[in-house]
Amino acid sequence: MKKDIHPEYKDTQVTCGCGEKFVTRSTVASGSIYVEVCSVCHPFYTGKQRILDTGGRVAKFEERFGKNK
């Protein structure tokens, strides 16, 4: 690696909108990052995600316009 061309890689505190705080490493100059969602409050990680059923839409389309034969 070339010397003195890479940004400093330091500990950075991440603060989520839900109030969760954790430390990671980053090259961000301020030493802090604010995010809207994290693994504590994101629906994918909490098990509260909703799966959209598009099957009804397909059936409705086929009913209106008929299936291609």
From TrEMBL:
Gene3D superfamilies: Ribosomal protein L31. One of its GO terms (cellular component) is ribonucleoprotein complex. GO terms for molecular function: metal ion binding; rRNA binding; structural constituent of ribosome. Zn(2+) binds at C16, C18, C38, C41. PROSITE patterns: RIBOSOMAL_L31. InterPro entries: Ribosomal_bL28/bL31-like_sf, Ribosomal_bL31, Ribosomal_bL31_A, Ribosomal_bL31_sf. GO terms for biological process: translation. The keyword Nucleotide-binding does not apply. Keywords: Metal-binding, Ribonucleoprotein, Ribosomal protein, RNA-binding, rRNA-binding, Zinc. Binds 1 zinc ion per subunit. It comes from the Bacteria. Its cofactor is Zn(2+). Belongs to the bacterial ribosomal protein bL31 family. Type A subfamily. Part of the 50S ribosomal subunit. Binds the 23S rRNA. This is Large ribosomal subunit protein bL31.
